[in-house]
Design a protein that fits this description.
Layout: H1 7-18, E1 24-28, H2 30-33, E2 42-47, E3 55-61, E4 64-71, H3 73-86, H4 90-96, E5 99-103, H5 107-121, H6 128-147, H7 151-172, H8 181-194, H9 198-210, H10 215-227
Length: 250
């Protein structure tokens, strides 16, 4: 595993080697946030004048696994706005919390500032249908875990319930949400913002559920639902789209 201290140097070299035409490039992710592990990769975003961008690619360079996010001006804006609308600002974080590796025309600093502004503004509020769908998902999983008679099914359902209840908690509180390790990170950030202890409770609920006791997880999910309008099953209805109908062809 290469030294984290060489990450910026190596990332800058790989951009110069693979993308000499780049308008700008950024190194984000764990090595910049200070949470790198022996398995961390280099998350490098590159802005090109045009094709072959946009694309995502995984390669190796100087011993590093590298995740490349290669964009044009319009595609970078599209994916950044899409992520923000979903409440999960992956692309905005990769650029906003980054080291600028190259900046041929000022767009490196400009996009980094734009991303930081989007992150500071926070996620858009959930719509009525979005909130209802999250409440329904947590309610359904809560029922599955409560009544599971198979240990494996209960464990799988518990993992899903833990993730979906955290999603509802975070997004319902006007906070960014995430998946995987970002669940823990976002819960910690919410606790810091609000003076709560959700991350510790979430962790303990997962630990005890894995050992066969789902009581803490059920209590966690119940409280999250109570904060967001309560359980929802009867009456939950979402309109669908029929591509074959006149209304579906637009």
């Amino acid at each position: 595993m290469p030294e984290v201290g060489t990450a910026v140097e190596d990332a800058r070299a790989l951009v110069a080697h693979w993308f000499p035409e780049a308008r700008a490039s950024w190194l984000g992710g764990s090595v910049v946030l200070g949470s790198a592990t022996p398995g961390s990769d280099l998350d490098v975003t590159v802005l090109l004048p045009g094709p072959p961008a946009p694309f995502r690619d995984a390669r190796r360079y100087r011993g590093w696994p590298v995740e490349l996010f290669v964009h044009t001006e319009t595609s970078l804006g599209h994916y950044m706005r899409r992520d923000v609308r979903a409440g999960r600002p992956t692309m905005a974080r990769l650029v906003g919390h980054s080291v600028v590796l190259s900046d041929a025309d000022g767009s490196g600093a400009q996009w980094r500032q734009t991303a930081q502004m989007l992150l500071a503004a926070g996620p858009p509020a959930l719509t009525g249908d979005e909130l209802a769908s999250l409440r329904y998902a947590v309610t359904d999983l809560l029922d599955d875990v409560t009544h599971a008679h198979d240990a494996h099914e209960r464990l799988v359902g518990s993992a899903l319930l833990a993730e979906e209840s955290a999603h509802l908690l975070l997004h319902g509180a006007g906070h960014w949400w995430g998946r995987g390790k970002w669940v823990a990170r976002e819960l910690a950030d919410l606790d810091e913002r609000d003076g709560t202890s959700w991350r510790g409770r979430h962790e303990q609920a997962l630990v005890t559920a894995a050992a066969g006791d789902v009581s803490l997880l059920l209590a966690f999910a119940d409280e999250v639902l109570a904060r967001n309008g309560g359980p929802l099953f009867e009456g939950h209805r979402l309109a669908g789209i029929d591509p074959g109908s006149d209304q579906g062809v637009r």
